[in-house]
Amino acid sequence: MAPNFPLNTHFEELLKNIQPPVARIKTAQRLPRLVRDYIKASQTFLTITPHTRLAGSYAQNMVVGEVKDVDTLVRVSGNPETNEPEAKQLIRDLKGLLDGLPAYLGYEGYAETQIEVERARRSIHVYFKDEDFHLDFVPCIAPDGFKNLLYVPDRDFNEWIASHPIGYITLLNKLNKKYGKKVKPLGKLLKHFRNHQMKNRKPKSYWLGALLLYHVQTGNLNMDACLGVLFRDLLDEIHYQYDHLLWTSDTATPNIPDPVLNHNISWNWSRTHFKTFMSRIDEGRQWATEALDAGDRDEAITYWQKIFGEEYFPSEVETVVSNLANAACPGKSLVSSTGLILPSQPASGLYTTTQPTKFHGIEQV
Ligand SMILES: Nc1ncnc2c1ncn2[C@@H]1O[C@H](COP(=O)(O)OP(=O)(O)OP(=O)(O)O)[C@@H](O)[C@H]1O
Ligand SMILES: [Mg+2]
């Protein structure tokens, strides 16, 4: 049943409000480029053409809020089957290279401490403290180039693991196009919901992305519905998919399949973290249902603000029909009789004004 108040223009504002600030996008464009040039030029740590490639949420155009990190693949030669080079050692070698980054960038003395370089499970993490910006460099053996199946190191198991990051991006883009450009906005809402409702025990973004693509592909979601309905239905689907694990077992957690390779990507999800996530999902889907069933507009808005935060979901918006509003819920026009309602600020004063520029900072190489 179509909701009384689809609030399409509100959702459009919400999506703008969760876009990264322009200054962060500029930093996301500038910093990785510096490090990528440094890696490419190295004569000691050898990489193969085209050397590096952006991956992760930044390359997917799926960033919400501050840009948390920018992920970059670094292509090296090797044979994953024989563990050559040794996965553990390769991470160590890349760390050795990146330890030279502060000096290369001209940071000296105390300034050197402004760049932290750390080993992670499958990457080297570079933190620019002065700009509060994180970069992840993931080495990979890509026998047929970045666009195909590749292998990333697992430090703990000292082996190379199959992964298909660009296949994921291609699939996401394909589905987004097929379903009226609603898949990415829906995914961003899910990520923002997680960020807003969970301060810790957060599930990984990649798991959320995989859940999203799974439900879009199974056809469980009516992709013609407006974003509010889609969001509620997605939470419902996740709830019904995994709810039984909560009461049939004391230890079980979901096996979320990789959208491209199909293997279980959530094997390290702890039971307590999973339970917390399921509680937030259950709450969210109930509030969303209240919002969709609300008999008056303000009540609907109040519930959506509970879900997404009143600093993000506006109380009032200019109700001029836009492309997204039309695409989000065809047939439900939102033009008021006057054509315009002036925006007002919510009582809390937490309202963030719309970002003037839309996020479009993606370099594809
Ligand atoms: N368990 C996994 N299995 C396979 N690939 C993964 C896994 N976790 C992460 N990745 C790959 O690494 C990329 C970067 O992971 P990261 O945790 O930074 O998530 P993200 O999608 O960039 O989201 P964000 O950084 O906004 O939280 C993912 O987009 C995905 O391609
Ligand atoms: Mg990332």
Automatic annotation (TrEMBL):
The keyword Nucleotidyltransferase does not apply. InterPro entries: NT_2-5OAS_ClassI-CCAase, NT_sf. Keywords: Antiviral defense, Transferase. It comes from the Bacteria. GO terms for molecular function: nucleotidyltransferase activity. This is Nucleotidyltransferase. GO terms for biological process: defense response to virus. Pfam families: SMODS. The keyword Transferase applies.
